[in-house]
Fold each of these.
Amino acid sequence: MKLFRDLLDLIYPPRCPVCGAFLCDEETSHEEGTPFCRPCFKSFLSIESPFCPICGRPFEEGNPEDHVCEDCLRRRPFFKEARAPYLYEGGLMSAIHEFKYGAKSFLAKPLGLLLSSFAGRWLQAKEGLLLMPVPLHPRRLRERGFNQSLLLSREVARALNADLDFLSLKRIKYTKPQTGLGSEERSRNVARAFQVSRREAVKGRSIVLVDDVATTGSTLNECARALKKAGCREVFCLALARTSTF
């Protein structure tokens, strides 16, 4: 198999999935352990402390220690913790945009590898996890052709050797896109938009909700609300990227 892969790389040299640069070139050779070229990977901005230990929101200034943000103090989310490895900026934002809106579903593999690597570190001490992607409404699924969160979930589930359920949590309300909406508008837009169709599938389980991007966390929180109502034990939220401000 290695000989076959080497021959295939010789005929079709691998390219960076973000910028298209050949990974065999010295200046754009891939970052070790990733399928991305070095310049693109270095443009991915990791989220570092300080951040809110509940919603994962990064702080730009002030207290250098992790601390609960004002929003989580005022209204505790239904999920236990939410995390994302990167900020939704630069090259990664472009890659996610192409993946989500440009019908480039092949990006699920390289982006899923990034998310899987982070998930393995964050969730390594937790057992018996059930992964669930944030669902799309059937109408939106027909429009887009695939659920990007499901494609990412498959990569993470495979890496963690965890169960995956993409049928029990459903979006029952067709909502307008969250892009461009304020925090309160986002919450109202997705209110009561999700429902668990099979309570026995989630009862007593520790669930990891997977999405591509987290902004205010409204969508993840509404999913967590439905899951907790159906009897799950706890909900963790995992996104590939999140915005730095609400």
Amino acid sequence: MAWITGTLSTAAAPFYHSELIFPLESWHNHGSCIVEAPNGDLIVCWFHGSGERTADDVRILGARRKAGASDWSPPFEMADTPAFPDTNCCMIIDPEECLWLFWPTILANRWESALMKYKVSEDYQAQDGPPVWKLEKVLHMKPGDAFPDIVRAKTDAYVAARGNDPAHADWARRAVDQAGDKLTRRLGWFTRAHPYITSQGRMIVGLYSDGFDFASSIYTDDHGANWIMSEPMVGHGGIQPSFARKQDGTLVAYLRDNGPPPQRVQVSESHDEGATWGPVSDHPLLPNPGAGLELMNLADGRFLVIYNDTEEGRHSLAVSLSEDEGRTFRWTRHLEQSEPGKASHHYPSIIQTRDGNLHCTYSHFVRDPVTGREGKAIKHAVFNLEWLQTP
């Protein structure tokens, strides 16, 4: 893996372009994820319906932009559990060029009732519409018998490191109580950001629980034949993990902050390919208003994060580039900046395509100034590193 130092190349002209994948509409459209197929097609998924967990008509939709094309296809169905809401989808294409779609079905209109599922496709490039799925399974969660003791030890350490603040202590007590119940610890885990595939071929799927209000992951070393849950990443409100790798092999997870102030991206690290995770801490530089984000390695190894760079509100969406594995961020550009209350741009997903460009999708909600009604769509943006590195 090459790592960049010194002067950055500016060989290409900076460019940025964005468009809506489909027009603004009254339906709820949220939680997108983008991948690049081996043939160069871009595929995006998101959930669509009357609401989120409380509406039983929510399903997973997708769209495709064929390689070399400028327009997106009409939306098509990717997954639907009739009369149940399907939400928070994510995708990855593995080294064998199989497309994986992960999502939770919400059983009882509460996030704590989420049941994880996944589909796999080998036939998703020839046709214009949805993939042809060869497999669909429930992804069963089994944290293990040691989970209650691990949660107790990690919450005790977390609370002590923060001076036994009552807000953290109350959360810790609830988490420990819930960890003792077998059903509670096996249900309610679900996805948000891209899964991650290590250099050894391990697929790590980031998870979180609104019930526990912390994160975990599940991984497979054998293409899904067996799945193992990692030790949890226990931080108050640290959810929706997204991953990158340091040069020394350390895996880093950046987490959304749903906890009390200060509102910061939370961070945890793993030194064993995601099987266990260290203490959760606040990033000193990156704010987070309780909104999804994604972290990734560029092809040259540098860290890139796309996130709402505020402590309150989702009206500002930024992308930042680090040359020192997240200690500092030399470059930041804004994809969106709106007045609070008038628009929100959030839940981003980002990839670097084989041509070196960055493609992202995100939820784009705009409020009509006259009617007050909100229109919702998924937006796509593409830019190059030269644009990002333009002062």
Amino acid sequence: MSDLATTGFEHLFGRPPQAARAAPGRVNLIGEHTDYNDGFVLPIATPQHTRVEVAPSDGDVARVWSASVAADRPIEYRVGGERRRGEWIDYVQGVTAAMRARGFAVRGFDARIESELPLGAGLSSSASLEIAMVRALAAAFELTIDPIEGARIGHDAETGLVGAPVGMMDQMAASLATPDAALFLDTRSLAFEQLPLPSAAEMVVIDSGIAHHHASGEYRVRREECAESARQLGVAALRDVTVERLRAVSLPAPLDARARHVVTENARVVAARDALVRGDAPAFGALMNESHRSMRDDFQVSTPDVDALVAIAQQQPEVFGARMTGGGFGGSVVVLVARGEARTVAASIATCYRRERRCEPAILIPQRLRGPLD
């Protein structure tokens, strides 16, 4: 990250910001690849945030600088003339294009971005940026945008100009979730409910050190396989298929396995919601373990390193359950542990993983130090 003393907003742009807003990342506790199938998800916000400072300017030129990118000067583009570049600035361009498409009057501006979220760790740094940008621009241009519309704008940005075929979970979580309660979300209706974690448990998140990329081909292939499964089953989305019906029909490989993951994962999310209502940490942990097996074997989105990290976590006596979190093909794992044991267990897992796989993990939650945005 660049020297903050020489890359503050006033140093970059010669004036102070007029608005500053932040948005968290998310950890998906359970419910992977169900959101774009109109299903259920259960994310929770991270304590890490992305923060955006903005000042409007005359004309239509946007100048944007990010502390996550080694650059001496801001990147420029014309608001109203957004075009895909295949770079991080596309997430910002996507937001302004989506806002204007929805009738919000956005013109030129200067923006400075700073994030505590690691890229490619499966914590949805992109959605965090999108929602923080929506919030900052809304404040700077005195626009009224409610949290769900803000999430829709972020989703439009990522699926549109960026071109990543993601569901609505990440943007809804960045817009509505908090670090102290899970967000039970129906991605079809966008109805949601906030539920605290069991009092006997707390969360650990460890980055495997293997970065993932949502815009890559395999994620897109899984989405296409789900759509074809739904078509062959005669439903609008796999959300509409029960476990019992799926057992009674025959789909060709690999569609049978892909559909089995989504349908059973939806059932697991509903069961996990019920476990939270009861405060049942062991039941929730068992569902997390089942979810990882399904992602590994049926949806085939895990990797050997991530599988090893999950297995090491599951072997710890203080652990209720563990699974990969995020779209897959790398990223982080989420672990539910006995309350008061998070730091000790996280350190033990990381040490074993480093020794066994020769990979360098990063303990993301609990945070070791307070970040620069706090």
